[in-house]
Amino acid sequence: MIKQKYSPRYKQVEGYKHVGLDEEGVPHLQGTATKVVEIVIEYMEYKWGIEQLHIQHPHLSRAQICSALAYYWDHKDGLDADIDRRRLFVEKTRKMAGPSPL
Prior knowledge:
mainly alpha, globular
């Protein structure tokens, strides 16, 4: 496993050994800078399973990935709203930026 230099500690979420909340209430995987929503987006958009997510994020254990997905399914409405907010931000930013000169 790759050891990360940045290993914050978050407030533990009861029932999810590997998930913690930062000071703003955003769920992260304990000991990493990885947000639960980042794993969920890759799971949904790329249709990646646990093994592929682990290949793409070798610093995460399979247990951490499973915990992130379990947290998502138990808090789906709130995380889906966050995902929608992120998509709208990207769309708005793309429109404001205009066509790429490349």
